[in-house]
Amino acid sequence: MAGLITILIDGITYASWLFIVALGLTLVFGVLKILNIAHGSFYALGAYAAASFVGWAASMKWAPGLSLVAMLLAAVAVAALVAPLTERGLLRFFYGRDEVLLVLVTYAMFLIMEDVTKLVWGANPYYVSEPYSLFGNVDVGKQSYVGYDFALVGLAAVVGSAVWWGLNRTRIGKIVTVVIHSSEIAASMGINVSRVYMGAFAVGIFLAAIGGAFTAPMISVQPGVSVGVIIVSFAVVIIGGLGSIEGAAVGALIVGLARSIAVHTAPVAELFSIYIVMAIVLMFRPEGLFQRIQARKI
C-alpha cells in the first residue's frame, strides 16, 4: 500500500508541472494552429531566468518567501520580452502557410534559443535551492515528502482553472473562441485577429516559462533541459488531443503515472513507458482522448 501511495504522489507531482507546460503548447496550437517545437526553449528560459532572479533576490536580502515572487516575475519577464520578438518579428510572416514550414520555423527558433541560453548563462548548471525548502516536509503514512511538490500541484490546479475560466467565462475568451473557429469570420466582425494571436502566444510562452521557473528548484538548470521537456509535452498533448485543456490535464496525469510506475518497477523503461502509453491511446483514438475528428476542408 505504501508503494502504491508513493507511485501515485510521484506521478501527480510530475504531472503538475508537465500540465502547465503542455497547457501553453496546446493553447498556442488551438489559437494559432502552430505546432511549436520551440516551446521547450521557453521552458528553459523560464528556468534560467528564475535562477537569475532568485539569485538577485538573495543578494538584495529579500525574505526567503519572496523567492516565489521572484520566480513569478521571471516568467512574466520572459513572456514580455520573448513573445513580441518571436510572434511579431518572425511567426506572423508565416501564418496561413504550410504546417510543415511552420514546424521547420519553430525548430529553427529552438536551435537559435539553445545557443542564446548558452551565450547568456554559459554551460555550467544553475541550482535554485532556496524555494524548495519553504514548505517543509509533509508526512504521508510512513513516508515523508517535500512540501514544495504539493505546492506545485496546487499551482497547476490554479493555473489550469484560470485558463479554463478565461476561455469559457470571459468576453476575451469568447473572442478567442471565435478566432479559433474561423479567423476570417472573426476579422469580418471587426475582431483584431493579429492582437488575439499576439495575446495567445504571449500566454503560451508565459505558461511554459512559469513551468520552467517553478520547476527550477527541483532540477539542475543546464543546457539541453528543453529537449526532454518538449518531447514529453508533445506526448501529453497528443494523448489528450491537440487544443484541449481537459486533454492536457488528463494526458499529463496519464504520462505522470506511467512514468512513476516505470521508475518504481522498471527504471530502464522510464521513457519507453510514455511512448507505449501514447501508442496505445493512438491505436484507439488517433485524434486524442478529447479531440473530435473534423471534416477535411477542400
Q: Could you describe the 3D structure shown?
A:
The chain crosses the membrane at residues 12-35, 42-59, 65-83, 95-113, 145-165, 197-216, 228-255, 261-284. With 298 residues, the protein is mainly alpha-helical. The protein has eleven helices and two strands; from the N terminus they run ααααββααααααα. The chain has helices at residues 2-32, 39-59, 67-89, 99-121, 147-168, 171-181, 183-188, 193-215, 225-240, 245-265, 270-284, and strands at 137-140, 143-146. β1 and β2 form a beta hairpin. α2 (39-59) packs across α9 (225-240) and α3 runs antiparallel to α8. The longest helix is centred in the N-terminal third of the chain and has 31 residues, at 2-32. 43% of the residues are buried.
Brief write-up:
This is Branched-chain amino acid ABC transporter permease. By secondary structure, this protein is mainly α.
SSE order and pairing:
Elements: H1 2-32, H2 39-59, H3 67-89, H4 99-121, E1 137-140, E2 143-146, H5 147-168, H6 171-181, H7 183-188, H8 193-215, H9 225-240, H10 245-265, H11 270-284
Antiparallel strand pairs: 1-2
Sequence of strands across the biggest β-sheet: 1-2
Binned strand content: under 5%
* Level-2 CATH architecture: Orthogonal Bundle
- Alpha plus pi helix count: 11
Q: Which key phrases capture this entry?
A:
298 residues, two-stranded antiparallel ribbon, 3% strand, membrane, 2 strands, mainly alpha, Branched-chain amino acid ABC transporter permease, transmembrane helix, ABC transporter involved in vitamin B12 uptake, BtuC, single chain, transmembrane, BCAA_transport_permease
